[in-house]
């Protein structure tokens, strides 16, 4: 047993993070370098031997996926998903050996290329067949990468939705537009690094919930309960400081500009509150806000942890929402988007946002419109002040009819 395996045997769930293709491998390289996920096992899978050799993953955990019965061994998939898919099918035994013993598998990768698009759905299917809780965190390509690559990405993501328990998706264009809205000009290399960081945050956001020592613990079984609400999922992280930090951090997590919509319609939600000195009333307040967005019958699991390494006075809210009845990502090709202030999912970009760990977090300035309209869900609050008014209304609510804003529109 390795040291990490021994720790997992004592602490519980054994979690493996699998980076697939160039994008996935870059993401886990970042996690390893920054030590973002202590207590998990990292694996890299690629059809490109040269890229695989540069991975920060331990050599025994680097899995080279062969193509054409070994005739193209290590030469890559040539941006053709069917080549990656065939390679993965031919490498099922090697993949299964890498997954063996895991309770939970995280798959990180970029959709649109040959390896990530072709291999990831196969790996997810094998993991699910082995009875492993399988979560995929993937990115969709930039519009300027072309319609063919976008269509490949759509098909790859559909394959993941069929094979994984939960799929969290981020569109690269949403990241770029969020940065442009802040007046940030970034180069091509930096843009892709930020995408890698988003994949990294998508993994560490949930792994951290399980691994952190909590005042009110969320363990693997809690996460499994929500993650088995199969289908498309969303994850948001919000940070805030000051007297209104709960409302502002929760609002930022729910209305994250990298997401296509908010959490309305989810059947399972994980809420994690973390900081140096989390108060009970703050956990209660965050729970009330999140509950106001979801169906009363939704599974809502809440946890809190005191993190001694957190910034003084800063509160972190992590929300994972699963089991949406419809897709949360628009599959239509976005085209070659121009720059400047854009709308993401029907919502103007938020002001006052700060870049933290590659994902957009921070204080939100009102007014902000809801991402989407839903026939069977209440409209989301339009500002932090609206949040406070709704909370006051809920506190006074002792039964009878629901508050007016919770009525179906």
TrEMBL record:
GO biological process: one example: division septum assembly
Subunit text: Homodimer. Polymerizes to form a dynamic ring structure in a strictly GTP-dependent manner. Interacts directly with several other division proteins.
SMART domains, A to Z: Tubulin, Tubulin_C
CDD domains per record: FtsZ_type1
Family: Belongs to the FtsZ family.
Stored Pfam families: FtsZ_C, Tubulin
Boundaries of every Tubulin/FtsZ GTPase domain copy: 14-214
Binding site for GTP: 22-26, 114-116, 145, 149, 196
Species of provenance: Bacillus cereus
Protein name stated in the entry: Cell division protein FtsZ
Domain (Tubulin/FtsZ 2-layer sandwich): residue spans on this chain: 216-333
Gene Ontology CC terms, in alphabetical order: cell division site; cytoplasm
Keyword GTP-binding belongs to the record: yes
SUPFAM superfamilies assigned: Tubulin C-terminal domain-like, Tubulin nucleotide-binding domain-like
PANTHER family: CELL DIVISION PROTEIN FTSZ-RELATED, MITOCHONDRIAL DIVISION PROTEIN FSZA
GO MF term (any one): GTP binding
UniProt entry keywords in alphabetical sequence: Cell cycle, Cell division, Cytoplasm, GTP-binding, Nucleotide-binding, Septation
Localization (cell): Cytoplasm
Role according to the record: Essential cell division protein that forms a contractile ring structure (Z ring) at the future cell division site. The regulation of the ring assembly controls the timing and the location of cell division. One of the functions of the FtsZ ring is to recruit other cell division proteins to the septum to produce a new cell wall between the dividing cells. Binds GTP and shows GTPase activity.
